[in-house]
Amino acid sequence: MTRHIVSVVGGKDAPSTGTYASTNPAQLSETVAQVGLADADTFAAACRTAKEAQREWARVPAPVRGRVIASIGRLVEANAEALARLVTKEIGKPYAEALGEVREIVDTCDFFLGEGRRLYGQTVPSEMPDKNLFTFRNPVGVAAVITAGNFPVAVPSWYLVPALVAGNAIVWKPAEYSAASAFAMYQLFVKAGLPEGVLNIVFADGKETFEGLEKALTEGTVHKVGFTGSSEVGRRIGELCGRHLQSPCLELGGKNPMVIMPDADLDLAVEGALFSGFGTAGQRCTSLGTLIVHKDVHEEFIERFSRAVQNAKIGDPAKDVLAGPLLDQKFADRYEEFLTWIQPHHEVSGPTGRITADNPRHEFDGAHGLYYHPVVVDNVRPDDRIFLEETFGPIVGVTTFTTLDEAIELANRPGYGLSSSIYTTDPQAAFRFREGISAGMVSVNNSTSGAEAHLPFGGNGKSGNGSRQSGIWVLDQFTRWQAMNWDHSGRLQKAQMDVADITPDLEFRI
């Protein structure tokens, strides 16, 4: 049954100025939700509403806010299978992965429920007598959170949960093509007892969202922007926030390298490359971009990897498959362009393009869905577009190296810096790679994909502005440090001027 959903601001349905049909990419004739789209004024109004609600929410004791987060976790856990099925239906993510994504919300809640009792400040010694110094974490105010749809519920939780426990109010703008999943998650959060206006959800296209955000920043009703999406859009949001003297939390694209050393366990490396390259049909920001394989094992590795790719199951995401369809028609159109980057000097194993009756994958004809063949492109050169730019979809490039220093240089060349991986049995090589790689995350003998709720997640360069999500580190995005000094001496004591001086005898020698 098609769902009809609209934006909710202050606990009330907001007006819509247009409609978006969210379809099932595995069955394009099925509409999952009819989504009412709001305009820029509605987004800006939501930010004003959130600002009013935030004052009272911040007064709720932090341990009590933590108990609300605990309730969110229990509600999500109780609805895990239903939410995962909805994610699978709306974006085509294999059910096992969707269930793991929902589990990540629970893990995030389990970690942050205790932060309500651990929003610690410090008592700091003063350089003067009868004076005390303190530090406090204060909420920033209103957070505008804009998220992509490839992880429609897990990634938003990385923003929403810590922002809420820290005492902020939120205006959340999810991707239109995953609106039903996002709305279901919004309902679970609200049912945990959040006051009206503390969490608002606005569905809008990119243009209206940007205009609404610009208006809200000008009005002073947004104090932090969190964005997950492309590097191109992230740059525009960063520029907008910079004009208002704000530093956004940006989690952007990746061109994630995987280095295969000559001493690597090749079977393990093939398994890691297969999952990180083609899981979720290569539509993760942490998906494998380029395999950088030592020349001594290149031929053997490519033979094993190509065979594993050709044997991998692609199909109905409700079944046991490596990957289902692409997320949405716009990503399929963009992926078709990436395939044109394949050049005559490249070597491609197996078929490419959309899976159809005329271009089947084994017995699967991909009927009625946005299914594509996974592609391995060998002989990639460092100046190829396919090497330098993010290719969001099921395509992995392969190049070779002779020394570890060369591998590190190749890995850093595209200018992204999200995730990376090295397969080796040599600890020295692993740590040299860690020191030299520009990525915010490094895996040793593991895939480029995968995050845990208590470890910092984020990138550098084209992959982000150095901000981090998850773990205690994300609290620096949603709180501001406040310093307080309390002088109870009864007189004015001036820092750096009225400091007691103890004179040493620096000429003394034994």
TrEMBL record:
EC number: 1.2.1.3
MF annotations from Gene Ontology: aldehyde dehydrogenase (NAD+) activity
Ranges where the record places region Disordered: 1-20
A Pfam family of this chain: Aldedh
InterPro entries with a match to the protein in the record: Ald_DH/histidinol_DH, Ald_DH_C, Ald_DH_CS_GLU, Ald_DH_N, Aldehyde_DH_dom, ALDH7A1-like
Active site per the UniProt annotation: 251
Family, similarity comment: Belongs to the aldehyde dehydrogenase family.
Quaternary structure note: Homotetramer.
Protein name, per record: aldehyde dehydrogenase (NAD(+))
Organism per entry: Nonomuraea soli
